[in-house]
Design goal:
By secondary structure, the protein is mainly α. It has helices at residues 2-25, 27-42, 51-70, 73-77, 80-102, 105-108, 110-113, 123-147, 149-179, 181-197, 209-212, 219-232, 238-269. Helix 1 crosses helix 2 (27-42), helix 5 (80-102) runs antiparallel to helix 8 and helix 9 (149-179) runs antiparallel to helix 12.
Length: 270
């Protein structure tokens, strides 16, 4: 039993440290891939590198227009509904972007590593880099406008910590997207359902009373509760914190083990 626990802890440590250590070791390659990604997204556009920042800001603006202007939810639910909606929606957009891309991660970078030696372990970190910068910048702007200067400092850590928490899910989605192609097609629909099942577009107390007790089954509900409490300076819900940490520890070790053992077969599948 002790040996199993030690091996499990070793897998968790390896799963957390190895991708980031290799990313630092191959930082020149990481920077090249990042510039390649930015160029792919912005080449030939008038706004250029500003587009990655503008896109999530416009999405948040669209949700604000729908729920605040069209449906008048702020008048119905109170002035804090707008801050609740915006500070929850932006991390969710970052989360959705990362998970959707992770399902196609190996195919997206296949041209880079298929014919040459390449540290594939850095790809999950590569996926997290640009969203971390983009969504942190937009969240800091929104937090500053809604909650003041102190919230800007707090917002600096929200998206990076979210990305680290997503690491085991990124590893799982990458493997499922590689070996089960239908998964990549169905993942956007799954994330859309999760969006509606997570209290982002509505307060938790807007759910029927019989359904509120089931929110604890949804880890993303805990995630949103922590983000809202942190940015608004409220007491952190410790139950949500421990549940998220426990789920992360439960998933990271097996996800990393499967990821490492599947790497020899990646080129064969592609």
């Amino acid at each position: 039993m002790l040996n199993f626990v030690l091996r499990y802890c070793r897998q968790i440590i390896d799963g957390l440290t190895t991708p980031f250590v290799l990313s630092y070791r191959y930082r020149g390659l990481m920077w090249m891939l990042l510039r390649r990604e930015i160029a792919t997204r912005t080449s030939g556009t008038a706004l250029g590198f500003i587009w990655p920042l503008v896109q999530p800001a416009l999405q948040v603006l669209g949700f604000w227009f729908l729920f605040d202007v069209v449906y008048g939810m702020r008048l119905e639910r109170g002035a804090n509904f707008l801050s609740y909606l915006l500070t929850g929606m932006l991390p969710w957009l970052g989360l959705s972007e990362v998970l959707n891309r992770s399902a196609n991660m190996f195919r997206e970078f296949a041209s880079v590593f298929r014919r040459t030696p390449f540290p594939i372990e850095i790809l999950p970190v590569q996926l997290l880099c640009l969203p971390s910068v983009v969504y942190t910048a937009v969240l800091c702007l929104i937090a500053g406008l809604l909650f003041g200067a102190l919230a800007v400092l707090k917002a600096l850590v929200v998206i990076p910590l979210l990305m680290v928490w997503l690491l085991p899910l990124v590893l799982c989605c990458a493997l499922l997207g590689l070996f089960l192609r239908d998964f990549a097609q169905g993942l956007p629909f799954i994330l859309m359902l999760l969006l509606y099942c997570t209290p982002i577009l509505y307060f938790p107390d807007m759910l029927p009373a019989a359904m509120r007790t089931w929110l604890w089954l949804n880890p993303f509900s805990d995630l949103m509760a922590l983000i809202h409490a942190w940015l608004q300076g409220l007491a952190l819900p410790l139950n949500s914190l421990w549940r998220l940490l426990g789920l992360w520890l439960l998933l990271l070790g097996p996800a990393w083990l499967l990821f490492r053992r599947s790497l020899p077969h990646v080129r064969e599948v592609l």
